[in-house]
């Protein structure tokens, strides 16, 4: 009996605390409460939606609400146990959120940091203040132009070799290939080289542990009961994180040995200063922070780029008339496709396909920040955000916004990214005067914007465009099972559920 009293009292005290907190943190606009989405329940708010829907359905829900209900209006969402939150859909409002990064504005905050701490630790994705700045500086240095050129001209062809053999073999034997796996192996190898300076395969136990831990970390953002889940059933998650951390620490130990012996006997993708782990070791003193950081860079670049390649190939197979559109602008099979031949002015259509794919399938489909300013913040539309409140935006819904992209927002139409310049041959134009249209980060938040915009954007672009060209100029692809609209599976990023199984045919003249 006593136990029941205790439980009821604790429950009532908790509910009272929640109600007081919510009351004192009310979000208002011009003195009024914000509207809430249809179906919002008393007390539970939108909690059940977050708990029960898979991630893709949640993103579709955000898109529907934007297109059919609220348009650009900022609205409120509430989930019991979480700070009050709003969803932003207006690029003008998002622009301010992106600009006000920092402790006087918005930041990752405890909401994000708590959920991603186990996996990302002190790494750049989770860090703030000086720790973030130091890693950002090291990353900026690494991604300076010449490093990218070495990656494209030396590292990509080396690691693509395995994919090339697998595709040729599949063409000869009729074997089905899962292109999602093939792309992931390629991006794992490239990112293993970039972040750790080592050969890393997707079949390494680290990769499986990392995938498992990222999937569960992604789910924490929509499960208000994630902590309970972690303490009661988190054994597998804990051992996955421990494998990831031990791997990171071992990599750093090896890098330190290499530096001490000054015998860098692995190819140096940067050409002038080693791989990223070396640059991080120059900047950060604690080895465990370097380990976290290197894992964060790997995480930021590996799945995102593999996702983009997979969706790109899928969309092109659905729109076969666009295949020629790409191959017309890339060098023929057998001739090298280098950093200079894939520059944006020479391959605007390939870049347009890449950007258009990411508009519909952004590998980071959901973003959030917390209001760090102690005095709160007023958004351009008059919404007053108290300290601590959460700001959510959904790049997936931004990409499908009819207000931003027009009535054909759900259609794959790379041409929307191209425009004709006044005169053919203008500076930076392709032959014929076709060039890429620029969209602001606030309209196209696929790579985030402001101080924490993606550090690897250019690398992702060149990787995507390079792989697209290599694939399409050498082989023809046919999706094995057309299973209706493809969906994404639950993860931190946007992998294709069930993979992308294809049959392959060699093009007549296959290059080396
Ligand atoms: C298509 C591929 C990619 C997409 C769509 C993408 C998108 C993003 C987005 C949305 C963010 C902000 C995340 C946040 O708010 O926490 C981000 C951050 C970041 N990205 Fe990318 N990314 C891609 C590829 C890459 C690659 C190849 C790298 C290379 C390592 C990379 C490195 C980073 C880093 C280091 C950050 C953290 C920046 C910071 O917090 O200062 N990304 N990326």
Automatic annotation (TrEMBL):
Top-level taxonomic group: Eukaryota
- Could you identify this protein by its name? Cytochrome P450
Q: Read off the PANTHER family from this record.
A: CYTOCHROME P450
Protein family (similarity comment)? Belongs to the cytochrome P450 family.
Report if keyword Oxidoreductase is assigned. Answer: yes
Per the record's keyword annotation, is Phosphoprotein included, yes or no?
no
What is one Pfam family matched by this protein? p450
| GO BP | lipid metabolic process
Annotated heme binding lies at 454
PROSITE patterns listed in its UniProt record: CYTOCHROME_P450
Output the Gene3D superfamilies linked to this UniProt entry.
Answer: Cytochrome P450 (1.10.630.10)
> Which GO molecular function terms does the record list?
heme binding; iron ion binding; monooxygenase activity; oxidoreductase activity, acting on paired donors, with incorporation or reduction of molecular oxygen
Identify the cofactor(s): heme
Q: Which UniProt keywords apply?
A: Heme, Iron, Metal-binding, Monooxygenase, Oxidoreductase
């Amino acid at each position: 009996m006593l136990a029941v009293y205790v439980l009821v009292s604790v429950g009532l005290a908790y509910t009272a605390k929640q109600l007081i907190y919510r009351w004192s943190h009310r979000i208002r606009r011009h003195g009024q409460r914000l509207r809430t989405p249809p179906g919002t329940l008393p007390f539970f708010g939108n909690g059940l939606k977050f708990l029960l829907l898979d991630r893709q359905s949640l993103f579709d829900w955000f898109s529907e609400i934007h297109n059919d209900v609220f348009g650009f209006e900022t609205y409120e969402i509430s989930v019991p146990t979480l700070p009050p939150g709003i969803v932003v859909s207006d690029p003008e409002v998002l622009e301010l959120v992106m600009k006000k990064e920092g402790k006087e504005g918005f930041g990752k905050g405890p909401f994000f940091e708590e959920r991603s701490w186990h996996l990302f630790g002190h790494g750049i994705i989770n860090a703030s203040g000086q720790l973030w700045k130091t890693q950002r500086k090291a990353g900026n240095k690494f991604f300076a132009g010449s490093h990218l050129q070495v990656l494209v001209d030396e590292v990509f062809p080396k690691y693509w070799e395995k994919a090339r053999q697998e595709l040729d073999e599949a063409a000869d034997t009729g074997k089905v290939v899962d292109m999602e796996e093939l792309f992931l192996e390629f991006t794992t190898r490239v990112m293993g080289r970039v972040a750790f300076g080592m050969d890393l395969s997707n079949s390494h136990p680290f990769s499986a542990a990392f995938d498992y831990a990222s999937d569960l970390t992604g789910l924490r953002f929509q499960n208000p009961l994630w902590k309970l889940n972690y303490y009661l059933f988190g054994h597998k998650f804990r051992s996955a994180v421990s494998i990831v951390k031990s791997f990171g620490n071992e990599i750093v130990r090896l890098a330190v040995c290499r530096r001490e012996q000054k015998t860098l006997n692995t190819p140096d993708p940067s050409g002038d200063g080693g791989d990223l782990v070396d640059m991080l070791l120059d900047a950060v003193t604690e080895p465990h922070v370097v380990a976290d950081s290197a894992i964060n860079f790997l995480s930021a670049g590996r799945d995102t780029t593999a996702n983009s390649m997979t969706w790109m190939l899928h969309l092109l197979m659905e729109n076969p008339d666009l295949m020629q559109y790409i191959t017309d602008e890339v060098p023929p099979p057998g001739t090298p496709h280098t950093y200079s031949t894939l520059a944006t002015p020479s391959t605007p259509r390939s870049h347009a396909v890449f950007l258009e794919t990411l508009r519909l399938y952004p590998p980071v489909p959901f973003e959030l920040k917390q209001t760090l300013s102690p005095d709160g913040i007023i958004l351009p539309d008059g919404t007053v955000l108290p300290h601590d409140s959460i700001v959510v935006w959904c790049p997936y819904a931004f990409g499908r916004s009819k207000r931003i992209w027009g009535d054909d927002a759900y259609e794959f139409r790379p041409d929307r990214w191209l425009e004709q310049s006044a005169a053919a041959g203008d500076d930076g134009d392709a032959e014929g005067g076709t060039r890429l249209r620029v969209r602001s980060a606030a309209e196209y938040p696929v790579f985030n914007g402001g101080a924490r915009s993606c550090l690897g954007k250019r690398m992702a672009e060149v990787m995507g465009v390079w792989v697209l060209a290599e694939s399409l100029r050498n082989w023809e692809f046919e999706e094995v099972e057309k299973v209706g609209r493809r969906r994404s599976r639950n993860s931190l990023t946007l992998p294709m559920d069930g993979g992308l199984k294809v049959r392959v045919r060699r093009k007549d003249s296959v290059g080396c």
